Amino acid sequence: MATTTKEQAQATSTEERGLNKRDAFATGLGVLVATIGSAVGLGNIWKFPSLTGQNGGAAFIIVYVLCTVLVGLPVMISEHMIGRTARKDAVNSLREVAPKGQPWWLIGAAGGLSAFLIMAFYSSVAGWVFAYAFKGITGSILSTDPAVTSQNFGSLTTSSWEVLFWQWLVLVWVGVIIVMGVAKGIERTTKRLMPLLFVLLLIVCIRSLTLDGAGDGIEFLLKPDFSKLTGSVVLAAMGLAFFKLSVGMGTMITYGSYFKDEQNIPMTATKVMLADLSISLLAGLAIFPAVFAFGFNVDAGPSLLFITIPAVFASMPGGSVFVVLFFVLTAIAATGAMLSIVEVPVAYLTGQFNMQRRNATILTLVLLAIMGAPAALSFGELSDFTIAGKTVFDLYDYATSNVLLPIGGLFLCIFVGWVWGFGAVERALTNRGTLSNARTIRFFFMVVKYITPPLVLLVLLDGLNVI
Ligand code: TRP
Q1: How many whole angstroms from 3 Cα to the centroid of ligand 1?
Q2: What does the pLDDT look like over 196-233, one tens digit per residue?
Q3: Mean pLDDT of the chain
Q4: How many angstroms separate the alpha carbon of residue 401 from the centre of ligand 1?
Q5: Cβ contacts of residue 175 below 8 Å, gap of 6+?
Q6: Does residue 351 lie within any of the structural domains?
Q7: CA–CA distance, 10 with 244 (Å, rounded to integer)
Q8: How many domains are contained in the chain?
Q9: Residue 449, domain member (yes or no)
Q10: Residue 231: enclosing H or E segment and its boundaries?
């Protein structure tokens, strides 16, 4: 039977861990698009605007961009390099490149935990997005009155069966694409959807920028007020930089393991970073001018996207079409990101235990449904259940972005700079001597060894009030 032969083929591919036997991205462009697809997600359209709004606008953005360049990018290059060198899942890649007996694979193991925690709250928000895309079609979420849109959002997030239904729908949707594989599932899907996302975002941006009173929003994005910056705000900016570039938990090690031998890693990572920053800024330009034009609060936090955007669209001609477009594009962005999160445990389970891809995906999704439910219910049923003053949703979010990802990134840089060493880095980043990028590599190595680790440590300790 056809399925049996396919399954057998898959089983051998995980046994003989040869280069050509594992699934991988098929083209250089595919690598770039899938990696951008991982980086671009709810982080750009939901998290970036809500944190920027809560933390004072331009000054926060400046700190965030600095963290992206000095921390996020070096960690991403490190992860790609380790993944491609070892060509294994995150845990086993680290085990392979590290000296025998040293427990650097723990970074990958901690990353597995982060993957579940992130996916648990991410799938809740993605669930709201999918719900809004559908509700947009019936027009039931549109209203120019903020009180009404806010009530609409409240009635969705407090309805237990509704949030769980949408969360599970999202998990199944992601699972189906994951089962199709790296090239046929992830690469093909992101290649089709990412350009669409970009075009839709541009359209929404133009609409928002041409509203009366859009100027205040632009000013908010461009005029820094540094008085708002505290240790915890800087930590939030650094946490966002990790979250945005999907680094600190092994996603980029896993994706790096599917890269082509000829892929220029520093160049690819830089392009991903620039594309990701541009999408965030576009999302900011789509949202803030409208927020100011309609007199909404910028510091609404996680609900900003769901309360403001429907009101913005309700007040313009053809609004019901645009609101659907907007939430569809957000769903697209979320999909590429979720694929990359779920791929981490799936790659580990298939690589380590020779599990079939389909079974590994099902196991992962069941665990995610269990861990995700309390996050999805955090706004209704479980809103009074708090740990250290945070709901389950907030706790997952805070613990990953502000603690686990930075710690993962910190140890990864220490490993690359102080243990793996310049020789190995040079071999990996010149593609064994075929690229002449000596200056780039020396610069990268200097940053990853001397700049990123102390910076991450300082921001972490200060932001968590340890010093
Ligand atoms: N970068 C994605 C976003 O901005 C989220 C994401 C995908 C992620 N993979 C990750 C975050 C791995 C942290 C780690 O939406």
Answers
A1: 33
A2: 888 888 888 888 898 888 999 999 999 998 998 999 99
A3: 90
A4: 10
A5: 342, 361, 362, 364, 365
A6: yes
A7: 32
A8: 1
A9: yes
A10: helix 231-244
Using the 8-state DSSP alphabet, how is residue 223 labeled? S
pLDDT at 169: 97
Please give the Cα distance from 79 to 235 (Å, whole number).
22
d(CA 220, CA 98): 46
Distance in angstroms (rounded) separating the CA atoms of residues 331 and 145? 25
Average pLDDT over residues 349-369: 95
Within-domain flag for 405: yes
User: Ligand 1 center to residue 337 CA distance, Å?
Assistant: 6
Whichever domain contains 287, its CATH number is: 1.10.4160.10
Within a domain: residue 6?
no
Residue 173 to residue 1: CA distance in whole angstroms: 26
User: How far apart are the CA of 110 and the centre of ligand 1, in A?
Assistant: 15
Q: What pLDDT is stored for residue 1 in this prediction?
A: 40
Q: Is 197 in the pocket of ligand 1 (CB under 6 A)?
A: no
Nearest protein CA to atom 9 of ligand 1, as residue: 246
Q: For residue 436, what are its two tokens? A: 């002449």
Task: State pLDDT tens for residues 87-99.
Answer: 999 999 999 999 9
Instruction: Using the structure block, give the residue that is written with the tokens 């690359």.
Output: 416
For ligand 1, say whether the CB of 429 is within 6 Å of any of its atoms.
no
Least confident span in 81-85, 310-314, 441-445: 310-314
pLDDT confidence bin for 322, thresholds 50/70/90 = confident
In 274-332 the beta strands, taken as DSSP E runs, fall at none
Supply the pTM of this predicted model: 0.91
Whole-Å CA distances, 441 to 424, 427, 453? 11, 10, 17
The single-letter DSSP state of residue 99 is P
Ligand 1 within 6 A of 38 CB? yes
- Enclosing domain of residue 335: 25-463
Contacts of 170 (CB under 8 A, 6+ apart): 123, 126, 127, 130, 334, 338
